Structure prediction request, 401 residues.
Amino acid sequence: MDILSPEPLSCQREAFSLPRDLHYLNAAFMTPLPRQVEEAGLRGMARKRNPAGVSPEDFFREGEEIRRLFSRLVNIPDPARVAILPSVSYGIAVAVRNTYLRPEQNIVLLREQFPSNVYGWRRLARDTGARIRTVGPPEGGVGPGRRGRLWNQRILEAVDQDTGVVALAPVHWTDGTLFDLEAIGSRAREVGAALVVDGTQSVGALPLDVARLQPDALIVGGYKWLLGPYAMGVGYFGPRYLDGLPLEETWIAREGSEDFAGLVDYRDGYQPGAVRFDVGERSNFILAPMLVAALELLLEWRPERIQAYTRALTRPAVEEGGRLGFGLEDEDGRAGHILGIRTPEGMEMASLREALERENVSASLRGSALRVSPHVYNDEEDVEALLRALRGAVGGAVEGS
Prediction:
């Protein structure tokens, strides 16, 4: 997929409320709320002051708008296949509940995968007797550029005729390693395995086409690259799961729930598509309008433009970081919006942490890497502060040796 855009995106710092002296390179931890998303939440709070103004239609309107906007963002032909969820673990639990495995089957996961897409599968393996097959990168002696390619190859080799589920992400959350979901998804379909994708660390900042990829489930938390609030996300469910059992038996997911006067005429049938998987009280009058505003903003900025912007922005850090002795994956093996920086031999992570604090740089230590994750509010001044911290950490390590 071509992630470059013919219409470059400029820095959008004015759309946020970040202080100028903070170099926030930590979007993979949590993005700050854009001003228009914050304002949507405040309007939602004001609406709750007087519930007499809330109509039955309001329980449905913003939910349908979320489905429509998210479908446009990731190319889902039918918005009814989108569920409104409170978390990634909730969406994964829906998939787990509706996945049936035999004892001889296996579940393919990534090493150090984010736990929301791990614990449910471990439970399913215990309950069915299936085995967890964890695939990690090649160990030792593999330079930048080859690591990601070899990791992808190992995933493809791990998927066999006994594989029932492949559960992974488009990028690794600790260092931005890219996974070839099209090739992996094709292999999963070849053996009849479910492909369950946690898109939380990519959707919104990296293009993803559901119609092309054909995942069985795509779950996305709203508070990271979707620029939305905490405790509200979305999930796409494909044909494998559409007739499944929800985690909750909510009234609003039933046929005819729009008729409030007829709610006591109980119906067993669900609304079409993935609506049956919606969380209870999905009509959150504060969070729902915030997610609508966030999705509208992303459709204006476009993930391919965000990806191009963040990749170009971090290029100086990649080039100089390599010269300073830090380990970084080659550009074609990682995403532009998440950069994993591994310390040179002999440097303690504590030294790097102290150097970042001196420069007021916010980033995350994840696994064996410093995770740098810029967004469109970042500019060259933020990258230069990061480089000063890297130089300072190297200088401190030399002095201490």
